[in-house]
Write a structure and sequence with these properties.
Elements (H helix, E strand, L loop, with lengths): L12 H25 L1 H22 L11 H30 L2 H6 L7 H27 L8 H29 L2 H7 L3 H6 L12 H9 L1 H13 L11 H4 L1 H27 L2
Helix pairs in contact: 1-5, 2-3, 2-5, 3-5, 3-6, 3-7, 3-10, 5-6, 6-10, 6-12, 10-12
Amino acid sequence: MTAPTLAAPRTPLAGRLRWALADGLALVGRELGRLRRQPGELIASLIFPAVMVVLFGYVFGSAIKVPGGGNYREYLMPGLFAMVTFTSVMAVTLRVATDASRGVMDRFRSMPMARSAVPFGQTGANLVSGLPLLAVMAVAGLLVGWRAHRGFVPAAEAFLLLTLIRYALSWVGCYLGLVVRDEQTADQLIPLVFPVTMLSNSFVPTGGMPAALRVIADWNPVSALTAACRALFGNPAAPARDVAWPTAHPVAAVLLWSVVLLAVFVPLTVRTYERRGR
């Protein structure tokens, strides 16, 4: 008689989750440490929001009137918050593509670490690094006259909403970086993000756009995020007439977009990372 073959013990689900979380936090620390060693990148990313506030606030502000009245810079700030949040997707794409092209991902795969830790580390680092950007932009906005008129709690909800969708978008960027696997290609994709942010209600009301563009702009998630921030901050907004569902219910729309993006791109990104190592 042959001895029965014993199956190898399987790690409990809770243990695997703790393992993945610990490895992911270690990689978040790695990304933040890289920023400390390359302060120029961090400084540039912090200066960019302040420059955008001054540039758009005073250049556009001198020529654009808010329908229904109101300070244009107060109308503008939620749009700039939304724009910076959505453009962050390309920073993640470029960083992941750079690691993939330089063999960093292959070294990670050779280490005894959870497979899901690498994308969780990249997206977690993007979430943490985005907090000082929002703070710098908020301070710059306060200096040019922007205010959150509805009080602390709605303002905090607006910033939480910005942080949530930034995290969801970072998974999109991580997936794109794994797909292109080339920092030059990823760098060429950056200009494609700006039309998405511009074709929205971020800088101008959509009511004056041609009908086809207005439909696209009203259903653009950037418009929903901008409208949600305007509502929560109590900033001026264009009069609502025959608006699309996302701009009529912007907070719900942003939450829905965030959940959908996470539900689609978290498993897709983890699976793509695992397949790249085979």
